[in-house]
Each structure stands twice: as C-alpha cells, then as structure tokens.
Design a protein that fits this description.
This protein is of the alpha/beta class. The chain has 15 helices and 21 strands. About 30% of the residues lie in helices and about 25% in strands. The strands form 3 sheets. It has a 17-stranded mixed β-sheet that branches. Helix 11 links the parallel strand 19 and strand 20.
Length: about 575
C-alpha cells in the first residue's frame, strides 16, 4: 500500500475541531489524596466526557497510590488494579473485550532468586565471589528452583550478535555449548559512534538485552552475563538492581517454547574491568575489538560456578480488555493499549531497609498510560457519530518482565490480527507541560505517522524521533510484539521543546525522570505536575483513532520496513475483498 493520501477537508476540520475544543476547555485541578479502597477510589470525582487534566490526574493518583502496592502481577496490587479497570470500563458502558469477559488470563511462572546467591569466577585457580546486588544480578527463566553451573568456561562474544543479513556473527568459529558468554549491552557502532556499523547511535533489536539472552540460548550457552554501562543501557546500575530483584515473571515454557538459558544476568562495569584486567584484557581495548568487522570471540582463561536457588510458583495474571463496537464495521478494530503492571512492593522480603520507601508506585510508568487509555475511551464513548470500526482498549500485564502480557495477547488475540487496523501504545506519558513537538518513537516506520501528522498539524506541533535512539525504546514497550507480528503500531508521546522553557528545559525534565524516578520508588504522583501537555498528547492520539475508525483506510508499514512483509502476508486478500 502506498502512503495514505491527505485527509479530506471535512475530516481535517473534524479532527481540528475536536483538538481546539478540548484545548480550550479549562483544565481541572489535580484531585486530593485517594482513599485506600481497591476500586472506585475517587468516589467524589465527576468524570467529564472530554479529555481533561483533572480526570487524568484522578486515574493516575488512584492507580499509583500506596493502596495499589506497586501493581505487581500476582499480588494484591493486581487484584485492586484489575478491579479498578473493570469498574471504569463498566462505568463507560464498554463491552467485555474477550468474549463475554473483561479479562484474559495470562499464565505465568513467578521466580524469586535467593538474594544470598553468590556467583564465583575462578581466575588462575583462585575463586572470586561476586556479590548479588552490588556486583552482579542473576536469575533464571528455566522455572527450576535450583540451577547449578560448575566450572563453565567463560567466552567474550563482543555484543553477542548473530546478524547474517549484516554479515556479522559474534559467535563465529566457536561452540559455546555449556559455556558462559560475556558481552556488551547495545550493539556494534554505539560505543564508537560509528554510523557505518548497524545503525550507529540508534539501537537495533540486536542491542536489547532480551535479544542477547535469546541468542545465547540458541547457541546452547549455560549462562550469559551482560557488562553494564550506563550510556549503553540508557540507565544506571540501580535500575538493573531494582528491576531484577524480587519476584521475576515469565510465561510457562509450553506457552513460549523458545530456547531459554539456565542462568542469565548482569555484572557491573567496574567488576568486569577488574576481572578482565586480571585476565590480561583491557576493557577499553575489548570495546574497540568488538566494534571491528570480523571480530572473533575470545576464550577467557576463567570459569564460572553458580548455585542459584529460587522460589518458583505457577500463577496467572490478567490482561484487561474492553470493546466499543463499531457501528458499521464491528469486526475491524483499532487498539489502544498500555501496561498496567509495575515493580510492586520490595519491602515484604526484607529487601528494603527499615524506614525506606519500599513501594514502586509506577506513577509515570505506567499509571499515566492507563489513565490515558481511560480518558481516550471516554472520548470515544461520547463521540457523535459513533465510530464505524470497533475500538479495543487493552491494558496488559507483565510488561516489566519482558512484554509478556502483550506477547500472550498477540498469540491469542480477541480481534484477529488481520482485522486489527492499528495499535496505539501509551507508555510513560510526560507530565512536564505543553510542547511544540511530539515524539514518535521509531519515527519512519509506518503510515500511522502520516495520520498523526495531520492531527498535530492542527495543533501547531511537529513530529520528531526520540532524542536518544541509542536507548532502543522502540523495542522496550508492548507495541513491539504487535510490530513483530506485522500489525502497524504507533508509540508517540510528548516532545522535548516546552512552550515555556524550550528544548533545554524539556530535555532537563526528561533526564530528571530517567535519573531520579525511572524504576525507582520515587516514581510517585505529584499534584504539582503540569498536565496541560499530556492532555494535548491524548487529544492527538485520540485524533488518530478517530480518523482510522471513520475513513476505512488500512495503513501499512513504509516500503522497506522489516515488518511490512508480515503485514502484507496476513492481508492477502485485502480486507475489502473478503
């Protein structure tokens, strides 16, 4: 399919009218403290059919309150979150989105590593113990309560990438079965800023830690360790420690049969530098070598031993789905989605020191996205005329565990993927004020960007790519599972050029969130947030769906995009011909 044509004058006028009307509506003040009730925690709040700051704040404040205990899958926080979402969907008059149910059960295995676990690296016959938390983080996806690795030989495999289409194989010429591979985060080209390698500063999927473990498992390794560095990972060691400690979740092997490593984890950059130095290798020299075409893996004169004990439990979690049926084409749907889960309460297992805040409330990540879905849903319910295509509102679980809830939905969709027009993902919406721009993560992927541009043109805003493409955000949120399956997916949110303060102030605000709140207990609701910008962002994303549910188009990936072949294959014959 070619890029979509411009909107008709009437359609453009409708989109602009909605945006301007909503922009001119006075923003409500943030609500006061919520009660501890699991659902309906804002009983006195009167919700408006339009997208407003006050409604958005009410949802965020409830979902990120201490009463919801950090919204960990399988916890009391999940029970309260799911109850709240179902209640809100029912309040809006939305139908169940999974047959006759608002829920889709996602099977999962909960694994909690013993924090007393010690990883031993033996160099020149001398064992060196690496401490859990301060020097390494390690876990297992095997579902086994005990994993023993004895004297596994260490091999440095550069970035751990096997990319035949790029003529790159960090595993060339070596058999790593039963061995432990050690590798860098990100992908070739990043640390040397070489635009000629992969995509230079822009991370590809080969740079994501999830890919690196997947490839190590395919190669038959016993374990894999990623060397952490803040720039390459785009977050500090504290994020690794917070994210990998406590319960970890996975789909059962029967629901996700891809190869899995017995053990996988991270080591700090300082720890790696010391160990490699003792083995006669300079870490900086290894960075240079790993970024050189034709790199060959390096066998290290050291072994790894690990006695990893974990508590494992089979449980389940819930995706929450609601549907607004289309008036003329109800079997075709646009999906708005976001993840409801976060990191939970780290205080129950003695992980938090006395007096410390142990609840990871996840206000921005991602109570904001779920609040945004609810606000957009309310706007669609009030829309006249009603949308011609259906709209599915999907709140998924287990995003923080590797995008597992969306992965499960894509494998078991309530709307067939070839009837799914598009997916619009909301994750970590900025609450820093109005911006002159809007960030499209992975800009240049699909024709959905053309629709968004027509809406943001009406707002007087411009689109641009994310400021830190090296962070690989396109691969770090739930839309990616839909993209891999071929469904056009849009991930967009507020930009960086603040109307008041400009680019410098906007970038400073984004860095402040990354450094001081992301995956930390400090990600809490703040009544001082400026939510005028997020209201505009939600109006823009609503505008995209309003167009798609009305004009019958089937946007595709741009020509040359890696996901286009999968979409083209599922769309033969074209929907209009069915």
């Amino acid at each position: 399919m070619s890029r979509i044509p411009p909107l008709s004058a009437m359609a453009a006028a409708m989109a602009a009218a909605f945006v301007l009307a909503a922009c001119n509506k006075p923003a409500e003040a943030p609500v006061e403290s919520t009660s501890a009730e699991p659902a309906g925690a804002q009983p006195d709040h009167a919700f408006d059919p339009a997208i407003t700051a006050g409604d958005f704040a009410a949802h965020v404040q409830t979902l990120s309150s201490d009463a919801f205990a950090g919204r960990a899958p399988g916890s009391v926080g999940e029970e309260k979150t799911v109850a709240y979402l179902v209640e809100q969907f029912k309040r809006l008059g939305l139908q169940p989105g999974n047959g006759d149910s608002y829920l889709q059960t996602v099977p999962m295995v909960e694994t909690t590593a013993d924090p007393s676990t010690v990883l031993t690296v033996t160099v020149d016959g001398k064992p060196r113990e690496l401490a859990y938390g301060t020097q390494m983080m390690v876990g297992t996806r095997s579902g086994k309560p005990q994993v023993n690795i004895d004297d596994s030989e260490l091999v440095f495999v550069g970035y751990g990438v096997n990319a035949p289409e790029l003529g790159w194989n960090d595993y060339a010429g070596i058999d790593v079965k039963g061995k432990t591979v050690v590798m860098f985060v990100n992908d070739p080209g990043f640390h040397t800023q070489d635009a000629g390698l992969f995509e230079g500063n822009r991370m590809t999927y080969y740079g994501r830690w999830t890919y690196k473990y997947e490839e190590a498992a395919r190669q038959g390794a016993a374990a894999a360790l990623i060397i952490h560095d803040t720039e390459g990972a785009s977050y500090g060691w504290d994020v690794v420690e917070n994210s990998w400690s406590g319960p970890q979740f996975d789909l059962p092997a029967k629901d996700d049969p891809e190869p899995r490593l017995p053990a996988q984890g991270w080591i700090t950059g300082d720890t790696a530098r010391t160990l490699l130095g003792d083995l006669g290798h300079d870490l900086d020299d290894l960075y240079k070598a790993a970024n050189t075409p034709g790199f060959k893996p390096i066998e290290l004169d050291a072994t790894l031993s690990l006695d990893l004990r974990s508590t494992t439990t089979e449980k389940s979690s819930q995706n929450v789905l609601a549907r607004l049926p289309g008036s003329t084409r109800p079997d075709e749907a646009v999906i708005y989605m976001g993840h409801w889960d976060h990191l939970g309460d780290h205080g129950h297992d003695g992980e938090a020191a006395a007096g410390d805040d142990s609840i990871y409330n996840g206000a921005i990540d991602n109570a904001t996205g779920i609040a945004g879905i609810l606000e957009i849903a309310e706007a669609f319910v009030a829309q006249e005329p009603a949308p011609e295509r259906s709209v599915l509102f999907l709140a998924v679980t287990l995003e923080e565990s590797g995008l597992l809830g969306s992965k499960y939905y894509v494998a078991h969709p309530s709307v067939p993927l070839d009837r799914t027009v598009a997916v619009i993902n909301l994750d970590a919406m900025p609450v820093i004020g109005r911006t002159r721009d809007m960030t499209v993560v992975g800009l240049g992927n699909s024709e959905l960007e053309d629709v968004l541009k027509q809406v943001t043109d009406g707002q007087g805003r411009v689109l641009h790519a994310e400021a830190t493409p090296e962070s690989g955000f396109y691969f770090r949120s739930d839309h990616f599972n839909f993209a891999k399956a071929g469904v056009p997916a849009l991930y967009a949110k507020g930009g960086e050029e603040l109307v008041e303060g400009g680019v410098d102030a906007g970038q400073a605000a984004h860095l402040d969130y990354r450094d001081n709140r992301y995956h930390q207990a400090s990600d809490e609701f703040d009544p001082a947030w400026n939510m005028d910008g997020v209201v505009e962002d939600l109006q823009a994303l609503y505008g995209v769906g309003e167009v798609l549910t009305r004009d019958g188009q089937w946007p595709n990936w741009y020509e040359g995009n890696a996901f286009r072949a999968a979409r083209d294959a599922m769309m033969t014959p074209e929907p209009a011909a069915r």
